[in-house]
Write a structure and sequence with these properties.
The protein is mainly alpha-helical and 152 residues long. Helix content is 49%, strand content 0%. α1 packs antiparallel against α4 (98-113), α2 (33-47) runs parallel beside α4 (98-113) and α2 runs antiparallel to α5 (132-149). The chain starts with 6 loop residues before the first helix and ends with a helix.
């Protein structure tokens, strides 16, 4: 299972982020490439407790859906919903300069990946309490999902 905890998996995500272009064409969804970069950065901020996101969870999401999302060996499908605070056009950080936004995303991905095992992760707004291992797995899968959205 790929995870931001593993150096080669983190390097893969960072390499793919660097392959993005401001004019990269999406395969699904509504976000542009620059909006997606800001969305991923907002998600990293959320993961480290720097961006408050409203809960949108029920027992099914905290158990079965969480297990399926983190452990089934298949990519996340298009069309997954997000919380309004990190959704572009609603509460998400708007894009600025593309190169600066990419550099900021790289910095936040590194921060998420470098947290110690005893880091006190916040409650995920959909999946509820998650372990260090689960947060780093989620980080990889979330980035992979959106990078695939743009063909990288």
């Amino acid at each position: 299972m790929k995870t931001l905890a593993r150096g080669r998996d983190k390097a893969e995500i960072l390499r793919r982020v660097r392959q993005l272009r401001a004019d990269s064409v999406r395969r699904w969804g509504r976000m542009s490439a620059d909006q997606m970069v800001c969305h991923l950065t907002d998600a990293c901020r959320m993961a480290l407790g720097g961006k408050q996101v409203s809960p949108g969870t029920a027992r099914l999401q905290r158990t079965l859906i969480k297990w399926m999302a983190l452990y089934l060996p298949r990519p996340w499908p298009p069309g997954l919903l997000t919380r309004p605070e990190i959704e572009q056009g609603i509460g998400g950080t708007p894009p600025g300069d593309f190169a600066a936004d990419v550099a900021e995303l790289e910095r936040w991905l590194e921060l998420v990946a470098s947290q110690p095992r005893d880091f006190r992760w916040p409650v995920h707004p959909i999946f509820g309490r998650m372990s260090h291992r689960e947060w780093l797995r989620w980080g990889y899968l979330h980035a992979d999902h959106h990078l695939r959205q743009f063909g990288v």
